[in-house]
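From the thread on structure requests for the teaching lab: each student submitted one protein with a one-line request. Submission from student K.M.:

"Model Ribonuclease, RNase K b from Cyprinodon variegatus, C-alpha cells only."
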Amino acid sequence: MPSLLFCGPKMAACGMVISIWGVIMLAMLGIFFSAKSAVLIEDVPFTEEDILNDKNPPQAIYALYNRVGINCFIAAAIYVAVGAISLCQVRLNKRQEYMVT
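Reply posted by the TA:
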C-alpha cells in the first residue's frame, strides 16, 4: 500500500507553525485593508494617473483597498490548506512511529 507520507515530523511541524502564523497575519491584514486603514496606503498599488484621470479618486482607491484585502484573504485560505496538509503529515508520522514493520 502506498504511503501518503512525504515529509518528516520536523518539516510537518514547521509547516504547521508557519501556516498558523500566516493565517493570523494575512487575516488581520485582510481585515485592515477591508477597513481601509490609512497606515496601509503605501501597500495599495495605485499610480498618479489613477488619481488624476479619475473623477472620483477616493472610490478608486477604496476599490484597490478591497482588492488587496481579498487577495490577503485568498492567501490566508491557501495557508489554511497548507496547515491542513501539515497536520495530516504530523498524524501520519505519529502513526508510523508506532507501527512495527
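TA comment: Residues 9-98 form one domain. The chain has a mean pLDDT of 90.
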